[in-house]
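In the design runs reported in the main text, the only information available to the sequence generator was the tokenized backbone. The following block is the verbatim input for one such run; it is reproduced so that readers can re-run the procedure and compare outputs position by position.
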């Protein structure tokens, strides 16, 4: 299990725009089989399992760091065309039970993908940055202004998506952004 407050070497060299990132799992066997089955094949039981594991982790995380309790949860958005093709947003499916259990509001529409991007899987870190540059917009800044936000996603690989979405939220007036993922790459 990743340590709740450990910094990776990349984050030490070049601090990300988000305040914190936490994940209960490392993206390796069997998680590297569960996440794609949930994400691409709508195996909802795996999504419920991942959300439960996140909740257990976040309960301990927030007990250890109560000052990090956010005001608002958001899910990493998908472009409308990709969401229509897939039929759901896996990040929202993780965020919904977390919001309910932690009694936090869940904002669904303020952060949006402003353009369709190539899937990140298989891209280098540099290609990921170029792919996601200006890929997000904040359509309802009044919903996030002055708020401490936790942005929920399934997997953090290089942190490029999280960083770009965070920059968008901070420019729109968010006080701070932290990332809550089910898994992160080792």
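Verbatim output:
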């Amino acid at each position: 299990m990743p340590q709740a407050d450990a910094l990776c070497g990349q984050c030490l060299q070049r601090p990300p725009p988000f305040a914190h990132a936490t994940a209960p799992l490392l993206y390796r066997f069997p998680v590297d089989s569960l996440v794609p089955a949930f994400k691409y094949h709508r195996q909802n039981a795996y999504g419920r399992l991942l959300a439960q594991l996140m909740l257990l982790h976040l309960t301990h995380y927030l007990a250890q760091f109560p000052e990090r309790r956010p005001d608002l949860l958001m899910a990493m958005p998908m472009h409308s065309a990709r969401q229509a093709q897939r039929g759901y947003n896996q990040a929202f499916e993780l965020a919904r039970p977390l919001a309910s259990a932690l009694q936090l509001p869940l904002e669904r529409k303020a952060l949006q993908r402003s353009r369709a991007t190539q899937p990140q899987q298989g891209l280098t870190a540099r290609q990921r940055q170029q792919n996601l540059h200006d890929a997000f917009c904040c359509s309802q800044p009044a919903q996030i202004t002055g708020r401490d936000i936790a942005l929920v996603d399934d997997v953090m690989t290089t942190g490029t998506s999280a960083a770009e979405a965070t920059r968008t939220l901070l420019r729109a007036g968010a006080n701070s952004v932290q990332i809550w993922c089910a898994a992160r790459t080792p």
